[in-house]
Design goal:
CATH topology: YaeB-like fold
Number of domains: 1
CATH superfamily: RelE-like
Largest sheet: 6 strands, mixed
Shape: globular
Structural class: alpha+beta
Helix content: 25-40%
CATH class: Alpha Beta
Oligomer: single chain
């Protein structure tokens, strides 16, 4: 599928991409597209900061969630992601945070998408 919009933001330090399943679905991009303009701008600000500068020191805006999963945190939303060699960050899924603790099912989804991505990269089947 050539119409996939992989790149969310391309900066000097990182290229940030949306994860896509084998079927061509992108849960994070779908969630992002359903947000209002103000909410989308909050995420874009964080992506630009990470992409251009390479770090976000404010843990209320970007934080490790363990197991090599990180979260962009434009309140009240969360976008889980992971880092890839060669200066890439892959955003796996997005959701509205309704509780203090990260929902286990959201982290499990991010980990499953990470493993899927890594497997498909290894066999050469991710980027078409």
């Amino acid at each position: 599928m050539k119409d996939r919009e992989y790149i969310a933001y391309e900066g000097e330090k990182y290229t940030i991409e949306w994860y896509y399943s084998e079927k061509g679905d992108s849960p994070a991009l779908d969630y992002y597209n359903a947000l209002n303009k103000g909410q989308r701008l909050k995420l874009l600000y964080l992506l630009k900061r990470m992409g251009d500068i390479g770090k976000i020191m404010d843990s209320t805006k970007f934080n490790s969630e363990g197991d090599q999963i990180f979260a962009f945190k434009p309140q009240p939303d969360r976008f889980l992601c992971f880092f890839v060699k060669k200066g890439k960050i892959i955003i796996t899924n997005g959701f509205c945070k309704k509780q203090q603790k990260l929902p286990t099912n959201e982290k499990e989804r991010a980990l499953a998408y990470k493993h899927n991505y890594e497997h498909r990269i290894k066999i050469g089947g991710y980027y078409e």
